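job 3f2a | input accepted
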Amino acid sequence: MPSKVGIYDSIKSPFVTDIKKVLPEWIDYNGHMNVAYYTLAFDEALDDFLNEIGIGESYVKSSQNGPYALQANYHYLNELLEGEQFRVRIYLVDVSDKCFHSAMEIFNEKDLSICAVCEQITMNVDLKRRKSNNYPDWVREKFDMMLGSQNDEQLPAQIGKPIGLRH
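job 3f2a | predicted structure (167 res):
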């Protein structure tokens, strides 16, 4: 188990990634970033977040516990074009002993406009048994501390919205 000295100091709520850039191969025939690459950007940002809290790739290898995405919902709000820079902001919406509900926003670094929102349920899985498993207490403490430092008003408006057509 990692030392608890200073483990909370480096986690900001919301977590914000370093600057990313839309690559030429991410552009589709409509001339903007393809939806598959929004998913990739969210997934890579979540990896950055998990590494920051101490449950990323090295934790998975040592503990044989890893994150599984159970459900995700996407909202595409504004285009990203080739060469544009963006970041991803990650909030915690809720946590349980085995799962966390996250809200993620891709925002354009140029004008700070929100380009896409994703909410996801992620479960901790024992990779040997292939079954869900409780997070260690130190992880729950980090999650709880992050949740306690957030305001509900910060969460993206799209979180929890049902999917459907407007008539």
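job 3f2a | Residues 107 and 113 are 5 Å apart (CA to CA).
job 3f2a | closed
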